[in-house]
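note to self: dont lose this again. the chain is below, predicted strucutre after it. 723 aa total, dont forget to put it in the shared folder this time
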Amino acid sequence: MTSPTTQPDNRVPGGNGIHANNTTYSTLLQAGRDINLHQKEPLPTEPVSSPELDAVRRAWVAEDEDGKEITTAPRALAMLGRDERVVVITGPPGTGKSAAGLRALSELRPALPGDGRSRLMLRLERVLPDWDSVEKDKFLLPAEHGRGYLLDVSGESARWEKPDVTARKFLGHADTLSKKGSYLVVIAGDRGWPENDPILGRNVVRAVSAPPGDRITRCHIDRLHPQVQRRGWLQAHVQEADGRNGGEDGDGQGRRATLTDLLRADMRPGDAAALALELGRISDAGGTLKDARDLVLRWRERVSTVFRETQDSADDRALLLAAVMLEGLSPAEILDGARLLLKDQKARGIRDILTGRDLVTRLETIQAKSDGHRVTFSHLPGYPAAVLRHFWRQLSDVQPNLIAWVKKLTAPKGLGAARIREIADLLAQLAVDESDLNPLDIAQTWAAAGDAGQAGASRLLARVARDPALGQETRTKLRAWAGQESRANATVAAVVCQGSFAQEYPRQALTCLRWVLGRPGHDSAVSAAEEALRAMGSDVLLLPRVWATVNSWLTESKQPDDRNHLAARRAFLALLNPDAGHAAATLLLANALEHADTADELVQGWCAALSVPALETRCEDVLTAWAKAVADGTLDADAVVEVLNHVIREHWMTGPLSTFIAGRAGTEYTSQPVIDLRERLILRWNTPRQAQREPHGEQASEPRPMMPVEASPSPHGDAGGEA
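---
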């Protein structure tokens, strides 16, 4: 970055006529110049995780149950090696398509330009499917240098209405990838991709079989988690140090206690790999062989045992649910949560209290541990999720009551108010495990319950939105909620866009925000959407996409009766409001000093917002915020003055500008920052200019009369001139 002191004069090189009389903010100007606001952004990506890379590089299982080679990855690698830049892997679920794609990309070593002997190891990244409709939307696929991209559309390919259109979009990216030395592997479902087409099916590899799940688990444990082997969990016979045979591991179960009889060949590759990782964690924590068996069985046997033992006790089953949801609280609080579920408000008689089982015994029955201060299942990782699955699946009639109870628990003053984050994770896992979106409905209540509830709603929906199976449906649900009249639904959609969802799916987040910002009244949902948009705009990586999108809304929505007309103008004002913690306005004004098109867009945006009577108060608020930001150095004074002077040419008599410049009858508009900015505007207006930039797209017009000096308030704080 160039040092500010190297500027030879007060005009920014390459500028459009905006003066930089004060070099105090030149660092910001340089930062602004580094943001290319007018480059279309590709779909977002994320690096492939280290555990995934280790799995496909160090623990690959290449044969099926019959010992025959599985050819998915080798065939994909062969195609990539023949300089096919886009390869498609299709097939049914559970055939290891994603792993095969990663394996092929990780094995590929393209030659670097030159003598051909130097080889490149690709950087592997996942492409996030950030589109509303893959067939109708226009989007850019990523194409950085030396990348191996994996795009998984297996959860939606069967629903494509025009598979040939989609296939051509992906295959047409090959030329761009070739120029960058990069490759793309698309993972599609069993149906959807036009494999029989002689052109579109040419680069297709069909996965028909996967490695046996038990072999994957064993291989991962052997090569990635060797500490598990030391416990002998996978051995049919373990010779103990004292000469005893059977691998009892301290719980007296002998040979039957080993895991050999539980590892199944029909486990899906992803499940088998996850199981190996979880077994490794149990070993590190010093768990028992029984814990390992329970984990392999996903706690089914232990949960079933608990349910048999509590069959005649609604109190104990309610206690189990309360302990799962309120883990970490005291036994007394867990008991209160159980009574809330049962709606048991009556006081128990002394006879019942004295003759009933003690609370510690009841907690032990449901497998919980308590030290008197807190109840926990930390000794049984994964057990709470298994309990919740069992209730949801086996006692399905309880679902509405369960959700209603969780809403009460997590109310602002509820027992579980401080555990919304953990409860959100449990419900997200439940939705994914059961392929059921009903647990997501609780997000509507959370979104209206303050900051903690909004964070929980955002976390819950963002996690499910990433799931390969449920993600596309979840994202569609969010867009539908955003456009509904229900304030709760619209608020949910806006709140989700305040979190990680906006970084991972910015295009869809902006679509949701536009729907919410178009609501007739400025309610809490609109406020949440404005906050989300400001947060996105303050991310320097997202700002180019956000700014381009907001400008496209302004351009496309010119009819006042169009819902998007109001949304676009609200979006502009939200983005340009320089409130604490949001740097979008600072970055945009700094960028305008370097780029004429950014300055023009700022002028156009102001003109569009000022033309909406319903936004007059909001415009006044943002103008005042600009004046304060100039005073405290957040916004560059020269950029603000130049932009606003061009806006004044178009909207001098518009209410908000007239009020800002000349004041309003009966209104004291005399804060010092406002007075100072008025003075700057008037002085600049009256200063002869050699090169005055005209409004975007218009011919030079006759100069308007200079603003009357008497319209300027006195520096002593008098009210502005009356209208």
